UniProtKB/TrEMBL annotation:
Residues 65-102 form the Low molecular weight protein antigen 6 PH domain. This is Low molecular weight protein antigen 6 PH domain-containing protein. It holds the Pfam family bPH_6. The chain crosses the membrane at residues 20-37, 44-64. InterPro entries: CFP-6_PH. Keywords: Membrane, Transmembrane, Transmembrane helix. It comes from the Bacteria.
Length: 209
């Protein structure tokens, strides 16, 4: 995982695996395209090109684009096709059961970039993975959920969110009791959807000519 922690500025989280997964997917796409060219010549390349472009773009959307950004007054969750800005005033809970999930009175937003850890990660974690976490990461028994383990994607991103949230509460910089009326901004990436749809249409057309 990668993150920035400059107090009072934008803090960002994204998986360290993003470049590797994106690059691996692009290599597979390039190999498929080269094979079509070698076997079928220029015609095969033209028929494969729309599918290759679509697959490469989808890999970027799924592996590279997702991230979590913590600004001074909100959390921005960037998923493959949707970006959601959640003001801290709208938050009622931060869950990490299956992935980092921001809970508001009207909506729960799961972060694609911050999935919860598997059993292997939980078994291999040492005492330092549960020490000195934000106060709101512990339950009433002072236990830490698996998804909050330091070093996991959900735990690292959750720690960024909880630290900023806790600081706002402690400094009385956060207006309380307004979660139900605080708007959460959702933006669907229509351009990405249109690009993928166009690649599919062009791919089908290319197979027919």
């Amino acid at each position: 995982m990668s993150s920035g922690r400059d107090a009072g500025s934008v803090q960002s989280f994204w998986p360290r695996s993003s470049p590797w997964l994106t690059g691996g997917a692009w290599l597979l796409v390039a190999g498929f395209t080269a094979a079509q060219w070698q076997q079928h010549g220029p015609g095969g390349l033209l028929r494969a090109a729309p599918w290759a472009l679509g697959a490469g773009y989808l890999a970027w959307l799924v592996f590279w684009r997702p991230r979590v950004q913590v600004t001074p007054d909100a959390v921005v969750v960037v998923n493959p096709f949707r970006t959601v800005r959640v003001p801290f005033a709208a938050l009622v809970d931060v869950s990490t059961q299956f992935a980092l999930t921001l809970v508001t009175p009207h909506l729960s937003i799961r972060a694609w970039a911050a999935p919860g850890p598997g059993r292997h990660k939980a078994l291999m974690s040492g005492p330092d993975a549960v020490e000195n976490l934000p106060t709101n990461a512990y339950d009433a028994r002072k236990a830490v959920r698996i998804g909050d383990l330091r070093g996991s994607a959900s735990g690292t991103a959750g720690e960024l969110v909880r630290e900023r949230w806790q600081r706002l509460v402690e400094t009385e910089a956060l207006e309380l009791g307004v979660a139900d009326t605080t708007p959460v901004d959702t933006h669907w990436d229509r351009t990405a959807q249109a690009v993928l749809a166009a690649c599919v249409v062009l791919g089908v057309v290319a197979q027919l000519v």
